[in-house]
Amino acid sequence: MTTARMRQGGVLGHYLDPASGARFVYARPEDQPELWNAYLDGAAENYRRFGVEHVLEYDDIRTGAGTTLFVAVLDRSGQVVAGVRAQGPYTDVDDAHALMEWAGRPGTAALREGISARIDEGLLELKAGWVSADSPDRHALTPALARTVFHIFRLIGVRYALCTVADHAVRRWQSSGAQIGQDVAPVAYPDPRYRTVPIWWDRETMLAASDASHLLLLAHEQEMFELSLNPDVRPGTPAAA
């Protein structure tokens, strides 16, 4: 885990997760380069444990050029212990990284159709989500990371999100309203140890499909998020018309 500081200003918002005590910071790579590098280093370390660090395509993404925003999660000591990044909105079906993961194998046509059906209403893709196995708060961080998709939707302003995950990790993302692409055949990616599937979020239906435990926490996070951008507004104070 890498210690990093949040540069004052240049963030899209942040809030404190009461369960873990960690701060969730939303930013663009170019605005928070120290956090971005710490997030990437943590992702590489986490993926390296399983011998799949190549899927990060580290050298291709480290400039931040293909990342719209990222979330870096800082523990009480300032170490980055979790995170995720978003790319998009996509303007062409072939922009989706997920298609490379299927690469012409069974399920490719159905995945392409799913992307095509959603892209006109706005589609982003979530990549490189991780929680440090060394963090004592990892069990609290995992559901909190799943909730980041709600705030990413608000910041990017699209209807749909796509992510590809190994089937053992599906449940953690389903808790925030994700649905498995049942019409897409699973694929052995990044290697035969894994059975990877696409999951989709629909901004218009995800709250109804989310675990009830997320809802109050989401309301608290959103209030703190807004307060981080408008520090002169007290929690609970209605925004000016």
Task: Please describe what this structure looks like.
The protein has 241 residues and is α+β, with helices and mostly antiparallel strands. The protein has helices at residues 33-48, 58-61, 98-102, 108-119, 138-146, 148-156, 170-174, 206-209, 213-229, and strands spanning 2-3, 13-16, 23-27, 69-74, 79-87, 123-131, 160-166, 179-180, 196-202. Strands 1, 2, 3, 4, 5, 6, 7, 8 and 9 form a nine-stranded mixed sheet that branches. Residues 233-241 have low confidence and may be disordered.
Largest sheet: 9 strands, mixed
In one word, what is the shape? globular
Query: Percent of residues in helical segments?
Result: 25-40%
Question: Spans of 5+ residues with little confidence (pLDDT < 50)?
Answer: 233-241
Strand content bin: 15-25%
Termini distance? Answer: 43 Å
| Average pLDDT over all residues | 91
**H/I helix tally:** 9
How many beta-strand runs?
9
The value of Rg in angstroms is: 17 Å
Strand-helix topology:
Blueprint: E1 2-3, E2 13-16, E3 23-27, H1 33-48, H2 58-61, E4 69-74, E5 79-87, H3 98-102, H4 108-119, E6 123-131, H5 138-146, H6 148-156, E7 160-166, H7 170-174, E8 179-180, E9 196-202, H8 206-209, H9 213-229
Parallel strand pairs: 6-7
Antiparallel strand pairs: 1-5, 2-3, 3-4, 4-5, 5-6, 7-9, 8-9
Which terms would index this structure?
241 residues; alpha+beta; 34% helix; globular
Describe what is shown at a glance.
By secondary structure, this protein is α+β, with helices and mostly antiparallel strands. Helix content is 34%, strand content 21%.
